[in-house]
Amino acid sequence: MLIPDEGERPLRILDRETVLIRKAAGKRTHDQIIAANVDTLFIVTSCDQDFNVSRIERYLALANEAKIHPVIVLTKIDLSDDIDSFKQTAMVLQNNLRVEGVNAKENASLASLRTLCTEGHTIALVGSSGVGKSTLINSLTDSDQLTADVSFEDGKGQHTTTSRSLHLLHDGGLLIDTPGIRELQLSDCETGIEDTFDEVLSFIAQCKFNNCQHDTEIKCGIKAALDSGDLEQRRWESYQKLQDEQKERNIPKYEKGRARK
């Protein structure tokens, strides 16, 4: 390792082209940078109890807000008897969303992912603890990440990554590993949410009134879409929840305190 001479200073700090930001976990109010200058985000989830569409939507909003290309990586396909249902459920969450099913322990299964692991390309991995991110890294790089066996009781892997790390991919790209995220709270993410739920916005645009509350108003595009089945109730509720969190985030602290009184 080269030690800089005493008194040396950076000549230039380059601007970030992309940055992944989330709200810090718990009751803390500050934002937390996950990674910067990322081209593609691998949203890793396993084909078991970890698969949660509402959580995936949060990751998609995070990527879309940062203008980073999202890819859903479904791991542990060797342990599932119904891989197609997981794929189909994920694919409808966003137009032209790329979904890849892999067995991270088999190199042949990773061929489609390797097309993204090229020189000059930076990838970040996000996902819950125990979904197989470390095993995936070991197969895509020369790393020897600590891994843990799957629990026979709940089918889940165990948390092994505790800090972020940078790895060189076999084909010349870079991969950023992140610790498992227990709760993903979005920072300012209005554009990312809108991009993730673009079909919801199209139904809202069909409402007769600009200030429609989608409750008892006549000619409401949302109610019509829910009644016809064109819009899933869970999808609508997920959109509302994320928007409510954004509104809560933007309320000044003194107004929150006054509201509680």
Helix proportion range: 25-40%
- Broad structural category: alpha/beta
Q: What form results from the Cα inertia axes?
A: globular
CATH fold-level assignment of the largest domain: Rossmann fold
**In the CATH hierarchy, what is the superfamily of the largest domain?**
P-loop containing nucleotide triphosphate hydrolases
Number of strands: 9
Please mark out the parts with pLDDT under 50 across 5 or more consecutive residues, or reply none: 146-161, 256-261
Relative strand content: 15-25%
Number of helices: 9
Q: Supply Rg.
A: 21 Å
How many structural domains can be distinguished in the coordinates? 2
SSE pattern, N- to C-terminal:
EEEHEHEHEHEEEHHHHH
Mean pLDDT: 85
CATH class of the largest domain reads: Alpha Beta
The assigned CATH architecture of the largest domain is: 3-Layer(aba) Sandwich
Main sheet attributes: strand count, strand direction, barrel closure: 6 strands, mixed
Distance between the termini: 57 Å
Task: Give a verbal description of the structure.
This protein has 261 residues and is of the alpha/beta class. The protein has two domains: 19-186, Rossmann fold (3-Layer(aba) Sandwich); 197-260, Probable gtpase engc, domain 3 (Ribonucleotide Reductase Protein R1, domain 1, Orthogonal Bundle), CATH 1.10.40.50. It is built from nine helices and nine strands. It has a six-stranded mixed beta sheet with strand order 5-4-3-6-8-7, sandwiched between helices. Strand 1 (19-23) and strand 2 form a beta hairpin. The relative contact order is 0.14.
